[in-house]
Structure formats: C-alpha cells, structure tokens
Amino acid sequence: MTASIRTARLPSGIEVPVLGQGTWKMGEDHRRRADEVAALKLGIDLGMTLIDTAEMYASGGAEEVTREAIEGRRDGVFVVSKVLPTNASRAGVMRACEASLKRLGTDRIDLYLLHWRGGTPLAETVGGFETLKQQGKILHWGVSNFDTEDMEELAGVASGNAVQTNQVLYNLSSRGVDFDLLPWSRERGIPVMAYSPVGQGDLTRDRRLLAIAKRHEASAAQIALAWTIRQPGIIAIPKAGSAVHVRDNRAALDIKLSDADLAELDRAFPPPSRRRPLEMI
C-alpha cells in the first residue's frame, strides 16, 4: 500500500508529491541494480511516487531500472523523463520518446522534459511535444535548466503556455533562482522541480547544518531537504540508492523548520541580492 504525502499542483491541475525520487547515476553498475530497484520501490510505498529519470542517465540504464521498479504498479506512479537537446527536433523527440517508452516498459510518460536548451528552436521542440501529447505518448511536457529569459521566450511560443514545470539546480548552496526565477514561476503557477536538493554531498557535512540538525534529531541532509521543500511550488527529487537513504529522505517531510532555523540558514547561506547566471551540473 502506498502512503500519502503533501502534493504540489501542476498547471494542468494534476497533483504530484512534493518529494519524489531521482535516478541520476542509477543503472551505471549492474552490481547495484537490485538495491536501486528496491530503493525506488520502497520510495513508492512511502508516497514518493514521482520518479525522475532521463535518456541521458547511464545511456538509458536509469530508465531500465525505473522500469523494474514500477512493474505491476505503473498506474500509481508519475514518471518523468527527459530528452537530450541533440534529440530536440520535431522528428528527434518522436524517436527519443519511443526509445524511452521501450526502456521504461510503458505506453506513456507522464511528464517529458527538454533536458536543457540546445540549438533547436523552442517552437520546433514544443511542436514535437504537442504531437506526442496528441498521440497519448506523453501526458504533459516541461523543461529543465531554463533561466527566466528562457521561460519568457517559451511563453511566447505557440503552445508554450502548456509547460508544466522547470527542473533546475536548487539547494542551500545554490539558491540563485531565489532572486527572479522562483518568483516568476510562482506568479504563473508553474512549480519548480529541484534537482540535487542536498547538493553533491558537501551539505551533509556542513557544520552549520549539523548544528540545526542536532536540535531536530535529524541529519544535515534532512535539514537541507526540509529547507528546499518548505515553500509551496517546489518539488524535490533527491536520489537514494539504499533503503536507509530513502527512509531518511522521507523523514525530511516531517521536519518543521522554525523562523529561527530559517533565519540561521539565511545567515549561513545568504539569499541572492542580485541576479545570477543559472547554475547547472
């Protein structure tokens, strides 16, 4: 049985959990495959039913891991995958989507994202996405690693207002989007999907986070994750390759950071005072 957790609403009206599961680096080592599949399955049981993957991850291997994890329970999972910009032409997204569907073992992708901007005009990529929607092969589409100017340009493209999310790097040590992209997205009801919400491991050892974590009887990673999803309109997709890590991530949802905690975190990780270039990893 799948647990229920807090949700965010996409512009289409669909509700998705604010805490999902990432799969970056999954599928790279067959020796870890069983643990990765088990971790994703446990996350689904705990209510983290949004799984984010991409054709780029392990050259499709992460999609194959996802396939094993969702087998027999596809209807209870919200699958997100991403197309590379080199495949972002109208014909390219058709081929890439078909390949992802095969690796995922499903007849549709719930949310299909352009991984980052390339040389293909946005209108052409959006046209391909809209055709895939008409064919029922994807239900929704969105983007990833788009800055505010990119989102404004997208809004001016035919059917560009059908965008459902923008997936960007966002965590305590990478919060440049707080200055303009998050307010822009919030005003338009477009949730932001935060990847690497606890950084690349540095935040888990940060002494300032550890001090706050001690007060909450939690880990530094849990505090970082709780901070990321504290506000509406944010969906976090941390990756976890073990059952212990999955349970730790889920427990972050139950942490309530106080005003004093948040002020302390702002002093340690100051919010941006000016616009910054979008960060990517």
TrEMBL record:
- Record-annotated NADP-dependent oxidoreductase domain positions: 19-267
Which positions does the site annotation Lowers pKa of active site Tyr cover? K82
Please indicate which superkingdom the organism of origin belongs to.
Bacteria
Q: Which SUPFAM superfamilies match?
A: NAD(P)-linked oxidoreductase
Q: Name one GO molecular function term.
A: oxidoreductase activity
**Active site, per annotation:** Y57 (proton donor)
Which positions does UniProt annotate for substrate binding? H115
> What protein is this chain from?
Aldo/keto reductase
